[in-house]
Amino acid sequence: MHDRSLRRIANDSALLESFVVSLVLLVLTAGISLLLSWLWVWRHALWRNQTPTTGTVLVCGHQLEQGLPSPDFVVRLQRAAALAEAAPALKFVLLGGGQPSEAQAGQAWLAAHTALDPARVVLEEESTDSYENLRFARDLVGSERPLALLSSRYHLGRLRIFSRQLGLDAVLVPAESRLRFSLRLFAVTFVEAGYVCWFVSGLLWARLLQRRHLLARLR
Asked: What are phi and psi of 95, to 5 degrees?
């Protein structure tokens, strides 16, 4: 977990409460909650390739490296450009805030490396995490359908849970044509499993005990 994430948890009572709940559940289940989350992440990492031809594609950002798209982000942008070339009817929303914003950095990379028409691209620059990515994107796209979510394979499991909670009926589109196994992949899927476990634990806690301040954050 990044230092930025740890600071957010420490400074946000709702995040801290849900985080503590996930740790308690992890202990009570002897790690089974994390294992199930990891299997969920892997199931979606192996997702079959999808090629949308109409509608809007939400392209998930990634933490920038010295103000530039990270290697993972570049793979997502390359996939978006390939979809755009194959399907002229597609529109795109680049997701991710920050200073500079991930969305803005992604747009600059596309302009420099691809022929994607900027008129087909909208930016969502207010979000600070993956859940906010989708919540703000939901407001941007309104009733536009169909929708697709494009991200790295290791990220799709978390996106599936988030999109369902937010009522977004979207096709999952893996950035990579196939899964390439590596030690880094195992590490990042384990981190993703931690996020999934945290979110699901907090969601169940909020619903069971009607923790309204938590439920309000999940709408």
From this structure: -110, 145
Among residues 165, 150, 167, 170, the alpha carbon closest in space to that of 196 is found at 165
pLDDT of 12 over the 90 cut: no
Q: What is the pLDDT of residues 96-124, one digit of tens each?
A: 999 899 999 999 999 999 999 999 999 99
**Domains of the chain: which residue ranges?**
3-45+182-217, 56-174
Closest listed residue to residue 130, CA positions, set 169, 104, 156, 91: 156
Q: What's the pTM?
A: 0.92
CATH tag for 56-174 (out of 3.40.50.620, 3.90.420.10, 3.40.250.10, 3.30.160.670): 3.40.50.620
